[in-house]
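Help! Submission page says 'invalid entity' but I think these are all valid:
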Amino acid sequence: MNSSRNSSSDSYNFKVVLLGEGCVGKTSLVLRYVEDKFNNNHISTIQASFLNKKLNVYGKRINLAIWDTAGQERFHALGPIYYRSSNGAVLVYDITDEDSFQKVKSWVKELRRMLGTEICLVIVGNKTDLEKDRHVTFEDAELYSNNVGAVYFETSAKLNQGVEDMFLKLTEKMMEAHEQKVAKSASLGRQNSQRANVLVVEDDQVEQPTRQCCGSS
Amino acid sequence: MPMCVLNLQRSYKYMMYATKQPSLRINQADLKCKNGCGFYGNADWNGYCSKCYRDHLGFEKQKKQGQAQLEKQKSNAFTKFEEKKKHQSDKKSKFLPLFRKPSNLKELEKPHRNSDLKHSNPDADKLMAEFMLTFGQLSESLRHDFFKYIQVFIKRIQTDINMNKPIEDVTEVAQKYYNTFNNGLNTSSTFKDLPSDVRDQLLDFFEKYVMTILFSSLFCPNSTNDEEKDLIIQERIRKLSWVNAHHLDCCISETSIEVRDLVYTAITDLLGMDSVKAPLDKLNCVVKCCRSVMEVLQHCQGGPASADEFLPALIFVVLKANPARLKSNILYVTRFCNDSRLMQGEAGYYFTNLCCAVSFIENLTAKSLNMAEEEFDAYMSGQITCVSAWESALVACEGMHQLRENLNILKDLSQRTTIVQEGSKMLREDIEKFKNELNETVSVVMERTPLVIKPRKSPISLNPHHEQSGGATDVSLRKHDFDQSEPENLNFYHQNLEIGHLNDYTKENLQLDITPCTLIAENASTISVEPTPEDHSHNSFGLSKINYDIDFSDFSGENSMVEDLTPERISLNVTPDPFGPLGTSSAIFQEPLVPLNTSLNVQEKTDSAKSKQQYVLPLVEKLETTLLDEDETDIQNLPSPMKPMSSYSGFSKQGLQIPSIPCNTGDISYLNAHSNASTSSKDDS
């Protein structure tokens, strides 16, 4: 949807939400990715809650809008407001903290229930630099991720391991999903083309202009 | 894709209810339409399903129309004249519904808005000027097309509003039109060649223009209960005023002055949201507010703030700001701001956070504050009225402010005290200096006095050597030859001699020798008793203030024991007098004497002396102690002078008659002699 507004055919806007418990390293992860810095003292931006990252993938200009979310349990209920209409979600947990992995599972369930397969999921086990304290095994996490249709990555924001790869993979997935969407809506558009001129306000009708826009992209 | 669009179009509706969905514990029945038609209801539609809600609206409308007619009928019962007038206004109202009774407000205002738009609108004018400024260089046809889009949009929305369509439908129409316009921008021949940033600008301006024009009918529309929601959230926030940064695990240090300033900036930005009209401008206010919050957080913790810190801080700001028409503003922005903008970019993110904050506040429970249920209830019911840190910080700030002010006052006071102390010290020194100077001059005068007297004697007395022998009678006899007119002068030389003798005495016994002063005092005393003011003129040399001392000296003067008394008397009464207020102390023991004399003058003066005393307390105290020691001797002597008092007044009268007092000569010695003469004459009588 976000990308649909962009007029030029080879640029995309994607919205990515960062979900996960507090203190699992969501902010560090995104700061490592966008600013390539870990230590808070050297970071120029005054905020790390909303960051833009421009990418070039397969000759397409991609703008990632990364939305950080409050991870505290008390704000869990606000999740839907954050992740609505997002193209991708990064679900972060701390490999040394079993509870944070359970939290990720609950997020996955919720996202799948609310957004279905519209959203591309990446599950990230962060803090691999603390391997000796690991409580969640790689195998478990990967198995779970495959089962829910998510990509699994292990990263270390501190050592800058896997962060770039993770976001790149997510971007590719989102592009893929978007292409599928476009194709689907194009076929839908053909089906509904005769209804395009009717002024009855229906949900399908609402899509109409969007569809045209997508078609142009 | 369709799912996505759906989410977008229903964004706010979805947003507000989505919060509850993860923990779905509501009965299915609760979600059904109130009419029981089997479809799902919606709180936005008063719990009806969409169809029932529309019916319900129609019914309400009819009811209101009925009411309006009733009112019309009522008014018809008025006098004929009024009826006529009413008819006229009714006729008018067909053209200008504005003048109709406000009973059915909804229908009234819309046509009014119509006319409002056609007439000059200050907002429109301003926007027009802005447009010309930004897009003035664009071609005529382009501008024409642009305003054609605008006119079409406004007309469509207005017809929809006039048809009383639910606001959701209007929203959909508006959002659709935004897209249409966007497509037009991208595809139509007039706009296609424009650079993309200009096209974006045009899109923004389009939204701004139409929304500013339509603001009054689209903001908080009558068909919704937005206003109620505003009141609910406002009340809720008011109830939650006790929530502080600590409750929210928010790192805002409420007591820091810089942080408070930043928080106030954020609050002001948020409050500003209500004062602008276009959704875009409202969004900008939110962005400004959130940036201030970010600054606060950077100030409080250093380093970039993540959402974990940002959201609690924003909630805190919203709680403390309690913005007017918060819900209406949020709903207005979600409905009529271009959805695509709301979904992405920084503005979208911050606005989403604001929605989250509001949602959190609405659904806030004891658990979300990590608080015991009972405690939370107690806070909410007002049982515990704990002063929140924010307020206490306000109080603390106030206290600090007061403290600082008081400290300043104290500092000022201490400064003034030192000045006063220095002044008093200087005064004391001056007094001491003056005392010494006076003593010196007096001693000089004293040295000179016998010399002065002698020449005086010499011209009078034919035999100076005779005088030396001290024969009082001889002198008086000679004096008699010299001046017969004044019988008082008979004893002049006798007295003079006495004084001379006295002077010697004082010189021997006292370091402080102020004989001339005593004498002056004596003179003054005689006058003080007199009621006529003329006498004072006689005393024009200005030492009259010593008057009250004189009674003493007089008594002693006429006393047979004059010579014994004089030493004490001199030191007692006279010493302090000439030096100003110090002498007032002498009045203390003079008071008992005064009543006998019954001279009001003296009393008044003692009063004034008393008042003077207040100013020189430290010095007076000192003097008093020294004086009191000497006082005893005086008091012992008092009974004896008492009796002559009555006769004394008579003498003073005689003293009045003395014309030869050379007041202005400054030659005290002469005066000396004269006053002595008066006292001596008293003896004679």
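Support: the input was valid. A stray whitespace character was the problem, and the output above is from the cleaned input. Residues 1-8, 193-217 of chain A have pLDDT under 50 and may be disordered.
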